[in-house]
Automatic annotation (TrEMBL):
Annotated signal sequence range: none
This protein's name: Mitochondrial carrier family
Topology within the bilayer: Multi-pass membrane protein
Solcar repeats: 20-119, 126-222, 231-317
Compartments where located: Membrane
Organism: Micromonas commoda (strain RCC299 / NOUM17 / CCMP2709) (Picoplanktonic green alga)
GO cellular component, one term: membrane
PANTHER family: MITOCHONDRIAL DICARBOXYLATE CARRIER-RELATED
Pfam families assigned to the protein according to its UniProt record, in alphabetical order: Mito_carr
Membrane-spanning residues: none
Length: 323
């Protein structure tokens, strides 16, 4: 990434805003744009990762007397089942916490990546190691701070089972909202319950940000060097799509375990990440850790493209260096 100018050693609100606050703001805006476009794919990914519990008696069934449905065999089947049983608007479940999380979490993890990279380079860190460390640090910090929004979003996207748990009005006929889910979690596990699965969320976010930013950075550098193309939309698109593929593969197993922990109300036997891993492995073997990869990539691929293309544009509009 292009280097910034020297930072002031003393406190300077203007410089702090320019080097930290403004990058966080434009990063949050770019991630929000991508999230708004890809929310349906996020819903499908979550449904594929948790659908087994909604259809297998004794492993977190519906709990409200409803008859289990046949388990979808793939993303297309999950899409058809979701729309048929819950309507097209079900594809936008969890959008409110998703957008809140996108602005805050996305802004922090991408916005802090650049400042941490600069500080790391000043400390003598190597180029690639600097990008990985910066991505891990910014991603983990953002995930730890905003875990409640991810937990609420996940439970809303698996909304049918939330109704069975009483996180909405009796009978399951009314729409469940973020407030009802948050209240149910606090009533059951206390405020600390909002940070359930935070370790896995931090791990996923660290891997996500490190692989996404470092891959984008390196691919863009190689493409511009070997093709002679200018640093424009075409290069951003190619780098983003490849970064999305690497990121999806690296994060899917962690994302799968994290989703199981977020839905632990429907799997009372899961004491932690190790139990969740064993449960997935016993049920589906190693392939189970990659369940939802297609939906995840169809979400992360376009999301990465929209995020970085929008981010480059927003940074240019704000007078910041390109990534």
């Amino acid at each position: 990434m292009a280097a910034h100018g020297s930072w002031a050693t003393g406190p300077d609100p203007t410089r702090a805003w320019r080097h930290v606050g403004l990058p966080i703001a434009v990063s949050g805006a770019s991630v929000a744009c991508a999230t708004a476009c890809t929310n349906p794919l996020d819903v499908l990914k979550v449904r594929l990762q948790v659908m087994d519990g909604a259809t297998t008696p004794g492993i977190g069934g519906l709990g409200n007397g409803a008859q289990p449905r046949a388990r979808p065999t793939g993303m297309a089947d999950a899409f058809a089942s979701l729309v048929r049983h819950e309507g097209p608007l079900a594809l936008w479940k969890g959008l409110t916490p998703s957008l809140i999380r996108a602005v805050c979490y996305g802004g922090l993890r991408l916005g802090l990546y650049r400042p941490i990279t600069v500080l790391r380079e000043r400390g003598g860190g190597g180029s690639m190691s600097t990008k990985v460390v910066a991505g891990c640090a910014s991603g983990a910090f953002a995930a730890a701070l905003l875990n409640p929004t991810e937990l609420v979003k996940t439970r809303l996207m698996a909304d049918e089972r939330a109704r069975g748990r009483g996180e909405g009005p009796p009978g399951g006929g009314a729409r469940v909202g973020p407030y009802q889910v948050m209240r149910a979690v606090i009533n059951e596990k206390g405020v600390a319950g909002l940070w359930r699965g935070s370790a896995m969320s931090m791990t996923r976010s660290a891997v996500l940000t490190a692989s996404q930013c470092a891959t984008y950075d390196e691919v863009k550098r190689v493409v511009t060097r070997w093709t002679g193309l200018s640093d424009g939309v075409t290069v951003h698109f190619v780098a983003s799509m490849l970064a999305g593929a690497v990121t999806t593969t690296a994060t899917n197993p962690v994302d799968m375990i994290k989703t199981q922990l977020y839905m632990d109300a429907f799997r009372p036997g899961l004491a932690g990440a190790a139990d969740a891993f064993v449960a997935v492995w016993r049920r589906d073997g190693p392939r189970g850790l990659m369940r939802g990869w297609g939906a995840n990539y169809l979400r992360l691929g376009p999301q990465t493209v929209i995020t970085f293309v929008a981010l480059e544009k927003f940074r240019s509009m704000a007078g910041l260096d390109t990534l």
